[in-house]
Structure formats: C-alpha cells, structure tokens
Fold:
Amino acid sequence: MRQLGRIAIIFIIFLSGTSCGMFSGEGSEGVVEKRLSPVTVSEASVETMGLASAREVSPEALDGRLLDSYNVDVASLLDIRVFQFAYDSSEILEKYIAAIEAHAGYLIKNSNTKLVLEGHTDERGSREYNLALGERRAQSIQRRLSLLGVPELQVSVVTYGEERPIELMHNEAAYALNRRVEFVYR
Amino acid sequence: MSSTRCYSSRLSWTVALIVSVCGLFSFETIAENLVIKIEKGVSTALPIAIVPFENNTGESLIDVAAIIRNNLERSGLFRSLPVNDMPALPAALEDVRAKNWTSLGIENLVIGKLSKKNAGTIDINFRLIDVYSGKQLLGYRIPVQSDDLRFGSHKVSDFIYEKLLDKPGAYTSLLAYITVDQDSDRGKIYRLQVSDSDGYNARTILQSTEPILSPAWSPDGKRLAYVSFEGRNSAVYLQDLATGRRERIIHGKGINSSPTFSRDGEKLAVTLSRDGNPEIYLYDLKVKSLMRVTRHGAIDTEPAWAPDGRGLVFTSDRGDGPQIYHFNLADNSIKRITYNMGRYNTRARYSPDGRKLVLVNGIKGIYRIVLLDLRTKIYEAVTIGELDESPSFSPNGAMIIYATVTEDGSQLAAVSADGFTKQKLVAQRGEVREPVWGPLIR
Structure:
C-alpha cells in the first residue's frame, strides 16, 4: 500500500500540470488529464487514480524521501537519463525510484513515445556475462515501468554489456559510471 | 614486413566482403601487425641452432630462419643460439661439423636453402640434424608461393616442434581477435582481424562502427562465427574466410550472442534471451533450427563444448555469483564445476584434451586467468594481470592466449599452459581483445 502511495504522489504531480519542455507535443493541463484517461491502465495505476483523492493525506504519513521527491520538479526528474547500479547487481538504487516514476508518468501520458533501455556494465570480468548482466539491469527497470502502468509495447530493452563505456579509466569511479542503464527516447 | 605479403594467394584472402549492411563501410584490408615480446622464459628449454637459410633465388626475401627461431622460442620450450654466436653457417649436410655445435651444448641443428623453381614458387629445403648422433631427424622440400614464405616458415616450425616434442605444432594455425580504434570522424571503429600465430600478417575481415564480439572458429578453420551490433542489437553472423561472404544466422529480440562450434562443425551453442532471460541454445547449421538447452531464471551464458562433444560448460549465476556449470547432453543433467574458487568464475574453455578448463576468476576486484584440473579440482592462476579475460587454448594445448589491460589499453598476451613462459602481443595501435586460436591446419 505504501508503494502505491508513492505512485499516487507522483501522478498527482503530473496531473497538477508540470509539463516537460524537452519533449514535443505537450498539451495543457486539461489535455494531459484527458490523454491519461483512455490509456489502458494496469492494476497499479488504477489504484493510483483511486488514491489521488487522498490529496489531503497529512505530510507526517510520508517519509523524507517522498517529501523530497514531492518538491522536485518532474521536468528535472525526467532529465535523469542514466541510472547507475552496484557491482554485479541489477537492483534499482533507492535514489532513482522517483525519477523512474516520473518517466513512467511521462510514458503513460505520451503513449506514442517509445523508450529504449540500454543496459551497460563495467569492463571487469567476461564480456558475454556482462552482456547478460546489462540486459538484466535494463529489464529490471523495464519491469518497474511496467508495474507503474507503462504498456509493455512502449519500452524495449537492448544490452551492450561492457562494449560502450562512457568512462575509459580503469578505476572504481569509472566502473561506477559505466554500470548503468541509459534511457533513450525514440 | 611488407604489407603486400598480406595477400596470401594460398588462402585466397580476397577480402571481398559484402558491404550491404548498414553500419559497415569500406575496408582497409591491411592491419598493423602484432609485435610479440617474451616477458619471462625458462632455462630448462631445449637448445637449438637455426642457421640462416641460404638464399639461391637471387631475390631479397624475408628471414625464414628468424621466423622459425622466434616461433620456437615463443613456446618457452626452446632456446635458440643467436646467429652471432654460430661457429659456422652451413646450408648443406656435408658442410656441418658436428663438434662445432656440440661444444656449444647444441643438440639440434636446422639448416636450409631457398631456391626458385619457376616464377611465383619458392622451394624451402630444410633439414633437422641431431648433431650428437650425426643423424638427420627430418628433411623436407616445401614448395610455397613466393608471397607465402611466411606460411612456409611456420610449416617448417611445425615440423621441428612435432619431431622434437612429439606433439603437433600450432604455428600454421591462425589467430582471430577484435581491435577497437578511435577514429576522429566516425568515432569508434571495431575490426575483426585474423593473423598468423605470431601476430604477423594481420588482415581485417570485418569493420564496423558498432561493437563486434565473441569470434569463434569453425573446426575446419574456414569460417568464423561472431556477434555484431550493426543492426542496433546483437546478432550472430557466420563468415566464410576465403570469400568474405557472410550470413546473419541468428537474430531476434534480446541477446543473440556467445557462439561456439561443436567439434563436428554442425552445431553452434549460443546464448539467446528471446524468452526473456539468457539461456543456452543449440543451433543446427544444416537444418537451421534451435533447440533450447537450459531453463532457469538466472543468467546462463558462455557455452563451450567439451572436446568429446558429449557436454557443454557454461556460466550461470543460479548459485553463488557467476560460476561454471556442466550440461550433460546425454541425460540433460547439470552439475556445478567451480566450488571454493570465490564468487566470480566465468568464460570457461576446455583444453584440447578435455582434462582442464581455462577460465576467468575474479577475487577482490582482481580478474585473472585460472587453469582448473577437472579430475583433481586443483586450480592455479597462470596470469598476473588485474583485468585479464577471454582465455583461449592453442589447438595443441601448449599455450593460452588472452586479453589483458595494460597502460596501452587492452592488449593480447599469451602464456604457456604450465604458466612459466609469458609474452605480450602488442598491437601498434588501438585496443586488442578476445583472441581465439584457430584449429590446426593439416
């Protein structure tokens, strides 16, 4: 239920009309709401819409992170396009959850937009295992987006493993930057 | 090293590739050679003298004896006498004075002549002599195309190696590997190259602006399978070396990667994630059908065939981090192979005799090449780098070639299978990775 609560907050932010300048075709607040309604909604977002009426929820019910994300401009959350991961892990880091929710909201709102999730790893270990690990990272975000109500057809996954590092040094700082999923909108 | 020699007519490296796929463009067929540096050798090596071959062709030719000398020394099993220390330079049997050589501790002597039969053909005549007994151990005439003298030198090396060590030489076999260069206009350029076993004669057989990885030799040495991202996703390709003709054989949603040939050349083991998760499949090259091998929610990848064809090893993180597992093709049973070797063991390959696995072992951020004896379960690191990967056995089992990260980026290195003799194969530009040693050419 708490999870759904978080989702609700993010949707409220969306519905309250924060539009994102970097994507084309943004409508007014009212249009956004109209667009949202015909989207095939999954169970999670049905719950979300239901909870939207709980706008009066007292701030004490929310933890600090949610309060932070509540105050963050959705546009700047959408600016986050690179999501890092821990070593040999495909678990989404806590700090990215709000941004992923923002992207989910954007995708639901713009059902013609396609997103490619590119999975990457650091250079250590074997290339083929890393190819698989990169895919698993991208899939882990894909699953999260799907749970947030993003239709599966809108999001695809590709893995490059360790083949496309953004940082070429051979040290932990570089490895951390290279262990990532990149959001590429098409 | 003249670049014109790169066009070896014997192997008909026409490099006439079909450049119909996007992401590819015109090829430079000539690549930089790899330079091989021996880092560490052993003193128990067999002493041998290889006298410069007498050149009767009237033309300036490459130094055949020097190529043979370098080849034999690279194995770590031979120590060759420098030309300056040679008491004489005989080219015919009757000119050999045994005492000259035995007094220097030389047991084996190689002499030879190069002559021209007709335009375009050179005869290599060579003899291997046991100077203690005075017996000729070997003597052959090898006719080669005149632009293929380097291949002839490797052939002579194979003869000597096999005669003295009673194991096949692998000097005429080829290496395949990937290079990556930064091009100022086009960004990164990936090349699939093939070279002689000493790193010379490098030829580009595929060039792309998108990643290429996991080259794999067919057992007859005539084709290479590899993975290319030219279509914005991984796909498995099969390319004929002589004609450069290629075919995209496996593509589809998700990962299409990690090809290795079965010993009979009829099947490819591959990793595909079309069903949502990386699993091992067998692709029948004749029937063009896929058969799924593994079924597990974990990552299953990097299949490699056992030399007897009865099973596969692969990497899976179904247990405690990525580990090596064995799949028995007769009864579909799966058994974990790597135990008590840390939490990171990947990319296993069998030794040609099937008794050992060479793999990548990661402990505390250090990734090294490890040899595991499958019967005793004893394992040992044979490399000393921090980011070593992609080990591959030479087809005679004597050497292991792998990629290592140095100050110059990723480079190739080789180590004798006993771990004693290490050498670096240094490309003159760019990164070099994923070396695979081709089969013996008979």
User: Anything to note?
Assistant: The two ends of chain A are 33 Å apart (CA to CA).
